[in-house]
Amino acid sequence: MAERRAAPGEARTDVLRDGPTPKHAQLREILRKLAGEELLPGSPVPSERDLAARYGVSRLTVREAVGHLVAEGLLVRVRGKGTFTTRPRVDSQLHLASFTEDMRRRGMRPETVVLEAAEAVPPPGTARALGLAPGEPAYRLSRLRKANGAPMAVERGWYHAAALPGLLDHDLTGSIYTLLAHRYGVRLESGTQTVLAEGTDAETARLLGVRTGSPALVFRRVATAQGQPIEDMTSWYRGDLYQVTMQLDRNSDGSGHHRPTRRPT
């Protein structure tokens, strides 16, 4: 495709020139410097049209340059809004903690939108995880979690209704763990968690403000209090804003527990 020519009277600055380095690669480095040194995290970058006009290239060239930086995680496309510099990723240490409290410790402003709160019969897998009898109801809760106004995660899960009577009558926009501790004397102290990566479905992508199929870190957690299962929660975290750090130990058996070390005799 031929490079775009400026219209008569149209201002063109910083026009890229032909040379050994392809124009999309030249533009990529210009945008990398812009995103890394000049723009604040979460700032919009110029549109494809504006970039094409400024640098005298086709929109296909702009799209290729931006696509490389999106793949690197330096930029993110938000459907219907444009392209933005990425925010620093939030790091999870894989411990049992409240999202609200975790974000506050990081100096971020947590926000929660309740999407659904209802009493219903859970699917068989959840019933087994929570130790419920067949047909026994539980509380279903779905929430959108934000930090500094940015959608971070969608949580969809279940709580043991018999252990937490009237849970849905309380304010569910704050820390559930704090609510359980203060109202019910229930402190979630242990659990099992599985982490996997998958592409977001259309509804989850819409809530997170990303494209359908965008990568997400998925956490499936079953948490207990004094040995009783209380929570069965699955959370979808934006892959561009979240990362996981794990402590590695040669003496670990891979289950999160450490094998005893035999001392020489």
Automatic annotation (TrEMBL):
Keywords attached to this Swiss-Prot or TrEMBL record, sorted alphabetically, are: DNA-binding, Transcription, Transcription regulation
Residue ranges occupied by any HTH gntR-type domain in the UniProt entry: 21-88
Please give the biological process terms from Gene Ontology that the record holds. negative regulation of DNA-templated transcription
As one GO molecular function, the record gives: DNA binding
Instruction: Please list where the region (Disordered) is annotated.
Output: 1-23
Which spans are transmembrane here?
none
Which InterPro entries does the UniProt record give? Bact_HTH_transcr_reg, Chorismate_lyase_/UTRA_dom_sf, Tscrpt_reg_HTH_GntR, UTRA, WH-like_DNA-bd_sf, WH_DNA-bd_sf
PANTHER family per UniProt:
MANNOSYL-D-GLYCERATE TRANSPORT/METABOLISM SYSTEM REPRESSOR MNGR-RELATED (PTHR44846), MANNOSYL-D-GLYCERATE TRANSPORT_METABOLISM SYSTEM REPRESSOR MNGR-RELATED (PTHR44846:SF1)
The name this protein carries in UniProt is GntR family transcriptional regulator
Natural source organism: Saccharopolyspora thermophila
